[in-house]
Write a structure and sequence with these properties.
alpha+beta, globular, Peroxisomal Thiolase, Chain A, domain 1, binds octanoyl-coenzyme A, two-stranded antiparallel sheet, single chain, about 375 residues
Length: about 375
């Protein structure tokens, strides 16, 4: 017998520190000036390319991002450092990413109103893991006193929708009655703050979602359908991995951090995701124009506006097409869940909405939901 799955509650942990575009640009431009002064001869000889200044106006116009929350501001805005400083912790202490996930999970559990012991599986779905093993999800499971089983999964920016589908499938199959899915993202750890094209893109955050069997749930959101899609692309890459130390050339190129062909991603992903949403809505017998709210992946405001127009067949209102990237930037897997968490309480029973992710892989996921009475 198959069981209906419900999104029962969500939680959000926002790091207290934030960096504005202006602060980020000031750091980048100080670095660029020092770089150009230190390499003046090589630049004049055409051996080294000069750094060009970044601009806060460009960032807002090209992406919609105004600020981002981060776990360590001091290191990021220091032109001599330009990366977060996150000290290692002893094995006896919870890891920083698991700690963020536990904070978001506790909030979700409080909104759920049931004891954590009622959860019987934990999924940690994120684009970067604290370490190879033990899995962060098992650390979260331990910290919250949850039984059952736990594992980590990585589908880059689409990790959360893939996680919701995995949880819903566990519920449907009877493998679990309630699943906690967490998305801790310290994107600043894998962002090259010395790369003008991408230094502004990401922020840090953690989100949590509880999925449970419908007959156990009071309120929440019926999951009407989930669809996943992956299509290989080299346009968003991160070649960091355990074999880096085995390469004869060492860590080598800067591709051990996030790199992308932003323009190509924009051009290819907008039609792919719009078609996927419309096709999935059709399969479920839903009228896209009847969607009350879109909680899309938060990478670029222009992308979301284009997808919103294609899906609703008209210009969506700001209430219909939720944007949180102005404050959070791209938080990878967590973006659509922050949007859902912070802009869904006001909706009425029967209202339809869509959680949708897209990103590296390429990967995309659609989760259609309906508010329960
Ligand atoms: N300041 C001023 N000017 C700039 C800057 C800057 N910082 N950067 C670029 N420019 C200039 C360029 O030099 C160029 O100038 P010119 O026209 O004279 O050559 C001009 O601005 C235009 O440059 P672009 O074509 O690069 O700019 P775009 O308009 O395409 O905007 C964006 C760049 C904002 C990156 C945009 O392309 C975009 O958002 N694309 C979509 C990207 C996207 O959705 N990516 C998904 C990635 S997320 C993901 O899945 C990864 C998961 C893992 C993440 C966790 C680890 C970190």
């Amino acid at each position: 017998m198959s069981h209906q799955a419900v999104i029962a509650a969500t939680g959000l942990y926002t790091p207290p520190q934030a960096v504005s575009n202006e602060e980020l640009v000031e750091t980048f431009n100080a670095f660029a000036e020092r770089f150009n002064a230190a390499n003046a001869e090589a630049i004049a000889a055409g051996e080294v390319q000069a750094q060009t200044p970044s601009s806060a106006e460009f960032i807002v116009k090209a992406s919609g991002i105004r600020s981002r929350h981060v776990v360590d501001k001091a290191g990021i805005v220091d032109p001599e450092i330009m990366r977060p400083i996150i000290p290692e912790r002893p094995n006896e202490q919870i890891s920083v990413m698991a700690e963020m996930a536990v904070d978001a999970a506790r909030q979700a559990i409080a909104r759920w109103g049931k004891p954590a012991s009622r959860i019987d599986a934990v999924l940690c779905a994120a684009s970067n893991m604290q370490r190879a093993y033990p899995a962060m999800s098992i650390e979260v499971q331990e910290a919250l006193g949850i039984g059952g089983f736990a594992f980590d999964m990585n589908v880059a920016c689409s990790s959360a929708t893939f996680g919701i589908k995995t949880a819903a499938d566990f519920i449907a199959a009877g493998s679990a009655r309630a699943v906690l899915m967490v998305n801790p993202e310290i994107c600043s750890g894998h962002l090259n703050f010395r790369d003008r094209d991408s230094h502004f893109i990401f922020g840090d955050v953690a989100t949590a979602v509880i999925v449970e069997r419908a007959e156990d749930a009071t309120g929440g959101w019926d999951i009407l359908g989930t669809r996943l899609k992956t299509v290989f692309s080299n346009n968003i890459r991160n070649n960091f991995g355990f074999l880096n130390r085995a390469a004869p050339e060492g860590v080598g190129k800067p591709d051990k951090l996030f790199v992308q062909e932003g323009r190509k991603v924009f051009r290819e992903v907008v039609p792919m995701v719009s078609e996927m949403i419309l096709d999935h809505a059709g399969e479920l017998g839903l009228q896209p124009a009847a969607l009350k709210r879109l909680w899309l992946h938060q990478a670029n405001i222009n992308m979301n506006e284009m997808i919103g127009r294609k899906v609703l067949g008209r210009e969506p209102t700001p209430e219909e097409n939720v944007i949180i990237l102005d404050e959070y930037a791209n938080t990878s897997s967590a973006g659509s869940i922050i949007a859902f968490h912070s802009h869904s309480d006001d909706m009425a029973a029967g209202d339809l909405g869509l959680i949708c992710s897209f990103g590296a892989g390429y990967s995309a996921g659609t989760v259609f939901v309906r508010k329960r009475g």
